[in-house]
Design brief:
CATH class of the largest domain: Alpha Beta
InterPro entries: ClpP/crotonase-like_dom_sf (IPR029045), Membrane_assoc_protease (IPR052165), NA-bd_OB-fold (IPR012340), NfeD-like_C (IPR002810), NfeD1b_N (IPR056738), NfeD_membrane (IPR056739)
Largest sheet: 6 strands, parallel
Membrane topology: Multi-pass membrane protein
Number of domains: 3
Oligomer: single chain
Protein name: Membrane-bound ClpP-class protease
Shape: elongated
GO cellular component, one term: membrane
Radius of gyration: 37 Å
Number of strands: 16
Helix content: 40-55%
Number of helices: 16
Keywords: Hydrolase, Membrane, Protease, Transmembrane, Transmembrane helix
CATH superfamily of the largest domain: 2-enoyl-CoA Hydratase, Chain A, domain 1
Distance between the termini: 121 Å
Length: 449
Amino acid sequence: MRKVLLIVALFILLTPALAQAKTVYVAQIKGQITSYTYDQFDRYISEAERANANAIIIELDTPGGRGDAMQNIIQRIQTAKVPVIIYVYPSGAMAASAGTYIALGSHLIAMAPGTGIGACRPILGYSQNGSIIEAPAKITNFYVAYIKSLAEASGRNATIAEKFITEDLSLTPEEALKYHVIEVIAYDLNDLLNKADGMKTKLPVNGKYVTLSLKDAQVVYLRPTFKDQLITYITDPVVAYVLLTLGIWALILGFLSPGWHVPETAGAIMIALAIIGLGYFGYRSAGLLLIFLAIIFFIAEALTPTFGLFTVAGFISFVIGSIFLFSGGGGVDYLVSREVYSQLRLVIITIGILLAVFFAFGMAAVIRAHRRKAQTGKEEMIGLEGEVIEPLVPEGMIKIRGELWKAVSKTGEEINIGKKVRVVGMEGLKLIVVREKEKNVEEESKGGE
């Protein structure tokens, strides 16, 4: 009986401890804010939601980016089922322009020493001489109202938030904390977990404000995937513009030097990457673009054999495009489970190889067969070799491919039985032939011996 009571007592004591097990997810977002960035936010937040984590910390470093993508990210943060903490990190990082809006739309903002936040004046782009094209007043006024509403909803300083736009104000971590724009200054992740522990979120989560319980929590890092790292590089405006320019030059060079095919191939790939890098696509749209480019490469290989150049380019484009296609949003890391995706990768590579082989060899052979001139009737008979079975004096009978044909000697000479002849013409159903001289001479020399 005592053993039973002891077990029950231990179970009662351990149950609260097991229930209080804490987990914090940590992810990193760097570079321009684009549609891909929204996919990353959605994927990371969904991972934390699925694990019922105590919070997810997004280490943010961005100079800004697209306004539509920024608004979608903020909506995703504010509908999250777990607290989302924006941490401007590491030292030297920034949450500028669109990054400032995202931070103000989060449940808690932290900054590392040596970072900055602010400077949100909207622009339309850059002119040919490099000067900034200012947004019209109505667009500026909209973003002023938007950033103020984000600040007011979270109890942060709306006056300073407005100055981020109207005065292009930027703040250090100390200034941002002083003016109640952020909540925490943390040197590193552990410092953030300790300082934020016990704080209440600035926005409700699932309809209520949450007291953060982060101290001694288990930290789970969500690492960027290959596609995330690739997108980070090519979405840089400078890189995207250089890729676009070099791609156009390569296409022009390829058209001026036909037969080489290397410039056109490289140019097409660079232009596709530049279009993706400009940020107008999400992962799935980018995947479809790359798969479409791969099909073009495969067809080009079939039409213009390049000893495998277009095939390799098509295979690479197809594999990367397929990975992009099955990535992104949807509430999980991929549109399918991780176990299924590990098998899907093998399927993608296998199908890519089969497509490459088919277009490089099978389709190319079919196209060559269609291009070959039809060999029927007269065209089929010219050049065939036959044997005389009835002397040609000058007309007679010969056998070709097991068939008997009437034939006439073109030169009028008599050709005896057993001699080899070659068809050089045709009149109706009568073949015009000449004697195979080389073989006849060879036979005569042997007879002389």
